From TrEMBL:
Pathway annotation: Lipid metabolism; fatty acid beta-oxidation
Example GO molecular function: isomerase activity
PROSITE patterns to which the protein is assigned, alphabetical: ENOYL_COA_HYDRATASE (PS00166)
Subcellular location as annotated: Peroxisome
Provenance organism: Caldimonas brevitalea
SUPFAM superfamilies from the UniProt entry: 6-phosphogluconate dehydrogenase C-terminal domain-like, ClpP/crotonase, NAD(P)-binding Rossmann-fold domains
This protein's name: 3-hydroxyacyl-CoA dehydrogenase
Family: Belongs to the enoyl-CoA hydratase/isomerase family. In the N-terminal section; belongs to the enoyl-CoA hydratase/isomerase family.
InterPro entries per UniProt: 3-OHacyl-CoA_DH_NAD-bd, 3HC_DH_C, 6-PGluconate_DH-like_C_sf, ClpP/crotonase-like_dom_sf, Enoyl-CoA_hyd/isom_CS, Enoyl-CoA_hydra/iso, NAD(P)-bd_dom_sf
Annotated ranges, domain 3-hydroxyacyl-CoA dehydrogenase NAD binding: 296-472
Length: 695
């Protein structure tokens, strides 16, 4: 069924792209455009053709859901559609409003003329999916806006308003009014003046210093692209627009596009693109679930976490009542918020007026009574169930009916917290990651009795404060920290067996992680994990096994905050320095345990640590704590520094091959004295045996 609507206005045919929400150029729409154009060409009364979309979108580009499917290569392909437009014997005018991105912009470039609203959003963002524009964008855009401007747009994938290109041949007319009416008038002028058809392919790139500029661009891009091949391929393709005939440039572009499509980096980026959108959907909560109004928020605790949480809301205009128990702690928290904004102001990201407006949205208080009329309250107090009990019982007495009561706990039992109140349906977990005003991830923890509208409201609110939200069920550590515990245990075991912290960190950082587990521990504070271990030890003393990190904490080495942890730190600096004292402590620990150290290579470090993540992720998926494997990937990419080019631990396992992961886990599990958690998760084994993947 065609997704293009055909009509005639006077002497002009109007082809309207009709594939909501953004007119993705799927197979049906591509076919509809060609059929409509042929109809217009066959109608002798039609003198010109306008192709347009909706006020929201001319076209958001290719339909990424078709990538890797037979439909993506189905004719007419996008290059075919553009060729049909470009070779039309009647003038074709693109009328552009809303988003005009990727294949959508390439389609517009195939028209003979372009009329756009000034606020139309223009981009070639394929590089963000590990690709390059594959339908002539790298060849046509430099011919219209110049080499440097085109390369910047293509390599960054940035979105810019159409008004930016006023005075260039990219747009023949920019308007602030209805773009279709403007395009129809423009078409009448073209016909009346009998203007020659303007094909972009017939123009030349005007850049006398092209060779020198491209050499500079290659060096710059190579230094910043790191793990991703697409940016350099973009440079190569754009260079062909200067040095090669148009058709040869198209061939260079197409070959690079197809090659990039098969790279693991592009697969990872496309996976992440779709995973972020999937994470926003909750299978048993309809999209039209009524939302609760959130006009005022309360935050309990003005420490690092509470202050960061506060900034999220005041940044988007939501006033916050910030509660502390002591005036000096409240003053310190407010000063930190102000300092953070002042740092942004020094970088030119904020004005004084904006800083003043945001701080004016904070109402500091020392009393719970001030929270009486808030719509949502988030506690960010000490991670202790007794403290949480006091807070939630007080909130239950004070805060108005219908308000959402949220805990920022990173591990505690949310159902137990909810049971402290007479309204467990209003209780939810909102686990922000530190620094909360910077990190994108928000784990939304759904309790056994959390109401659907509470969940839907918090997911919408996450979007409003620009977070990537992932729903987690209730378990110790939820998705992220539960997996982190297994990852950390694997890293500790490697140190017990013969590796040093700097080797483990180095191997995982070479793999692509932003920071190895021991550096991360020093940054976060080793006392936090120690408190959790002591809590679990108290609950189940027989199950607890002492680890090296306990010895570090007993020696007062809590990480950067004390100048020593797994590494030592010079005063005022954060560079980790390997410490012989730690090596001695580790050697003493091994002797105490009767462990003879062995040689461990970097591949084994990566295999054990990453497969530990994958295995626990499979259990989390099997238990329904996470709805999708891709949700787990989003958690690790946005909250734990997992390398983007790997696509998350679960996609990485898919790419390695699940049978290979299972074989390695079974080998680890068969070692003498191995932790039972090395046994492969039943879901992992099942998928491997069935030849399936997580994603």
């Amino acid at each position: 069924m065609s997704s293009a609507q055909y009509g005639v206005r006077g002497q002009t045919a109007v082809i309207t792209l009709d594939n909501p929400p953004v007119n993705g150029l799927g197979a049906a729409l591509r076919a509809g455009i060609v059929e409509s154009l042929e109809r217009a060409l066959a109608d002798v009364a039609v003198r010109a053709v306008v192709i347009t979309g909706s006020p929201r979108a001319f076209s958001g580009g290719a339909d990424v859901k078709e990538f890797g499917t037979p439909k993506s290569g189905m004719e007419p392909s996008l290059p075919t559609v553009i060729r049909v437009l470009e070779t039309s014997t009647k003038p074709v005018i693109a009328a552009v409003a809303g988003v005009c991105m990727g294949g959508g912009l390439e389609l517009a470039l195939g028209a003979h003329f372009r009329v756009a609203r000034r606020d139309a959003q223009i981009a070639l963002p394929e590089v963000k999916l590990g690709l390059l524009p594959g339908a002539g964008g790298t060849q046509r855009l430099p011919r219209l806006i110049g080499l440097e401007a085109a390369l910047n747009l293509i390599v960054t994938g940035d979105t810019v308003p159409a008004a930016r290109f006023e005075g260039t041949p990219l747009f023949d007319l920019l308007v602030d009014t209805d773009v279709l009416d403007a395009a129809l008038s423009f078409a009448d002028q073209v016909v009346a003046e009998n203007r020659p058809l303007q094909r972009v392919r017939d123009r030349q790139v005007q850049e006398p210093q092209a060779e020198a500029f491209l050499a500079f661009a290659r060096n710059t891009v190579a230094a910043t692209a790191k793990h991703f091949p697409a940016p350099l391929k973009c440079v190569d393709a754009v260079a062909a627009s200067v040095a090669q005939p148009f058709d040869e440039g198209l061939r260079v572009e197409r070959e690079a596009f197809l090659a990039l499509m098969n790279t693991p980096e592009s697969r990872a980026l496309r996976h992440v693109f779709q995973a972020e959108r999937a994470a926003a959907k909750i299978p048993d909560v309809p999209a039209d679930t009524p939302l609760r109004k959130i006009a005022k928020v309360g935050v309990i605790g003005a420490g690092t976490m509470g202050g960061g949480i506060t900034m999220n809301f005041i940044n988007v205009g939501i006033p916050v009542v910030l509660l502390e128990t002591r005036q000096e702690a409240l003053d310190r928290g407010l000063a930190t918020i102000r300092r953070n904004y002042e740092n942004s102001m020094k970088k030119g990201k904020l004005t004084q007026a904006q800083l003043d407006e945001r701080l004016a949205r904070v109402t500091p208080t020392l009393g719970y009574e001030a929270l009486r009329d808030v719509d949502l309250v988030i506690e960010a107090v000490f991670e202790d169930m007794g403290v949480k009990e006091t807070v939630f019982k007080t909130l239950d007495d004070v805060v108005k009916p219908g308000a959402i009561l949220a805990s920022n706990t990173s591990a505690l039992d949310l159902d137990q917290i909810a049971a402290f109140t007479r309204r467990p349906q209003d209780v939810i977990g909102l686990h922000f990651f530190s620094p909360a005003n910077v990190m994108r991830l928000l784990e939304v923890v759904r309790g056994a009795r959390t109401a659907p509208d509470v969940l839907a409201t918090c997911m919408q609110l996450a979007k409003q404060i620009k977070k990537v939200a992932v729903v987690s069920g209730v378990c110790d550590g939820f998705i992220g920290n539960r997996m982190l515990a297994r990852y950390g245990a694997a890293a500790n075991q490697l140190v017990h067996q013969g590796a040093l912290p700097q080797q483990v960190d180095g191997a995982l950082q070479t793999f692509g992680l932003a920071m190895g587990p021991f550096r991360m521990g020093d940054l976060a504070g080793l006392d936090i994990g120690w408190a959790g271990r002591k809590r679990r030890q108290a609950a189940n003393p027989q199950a607890y096994t002492r680890i090296v990190a306990d010895a570090l904490c007993e020696a007062g080495r809590f990480g950067q905050k004390t100048g020593a942890g797994w590494y030592r730190y010079e005063p005022g600096r954060r560079d980790p320095i390997p410490d012989p004292a730690v090596e001695t402590l580790i050697a003493d620990f091994r002797r105490e345990k009767g462990i003879t150290p062995r040689r461990i290579d970097d591949d084994e470090v990566v295999e054990r640590c990453i497969y530990a993540l994958v295995n626990e992720g499979a259990r989390i998926l099997e238990e329904g704590i996470a709805a999708r494997a891709s949700d787990i990937d989003i958690v690790y990419l946005n909250g734990y520094g997992f390398p983007l080019h790997r696509g998350g631990p679960m996609l990485y396992a898919d790419m390695v091959g699940l049978p290979n992961v299972v074989r390695s886990l079974r080998r680890f599990a068969a070692e003498p004295g191995a932790d039972p958690s090395w046994q492969p998760a039943p879901l992992l084994v099942k998928l491997a045996e069935e030849g399936k993947t997580f994603n």
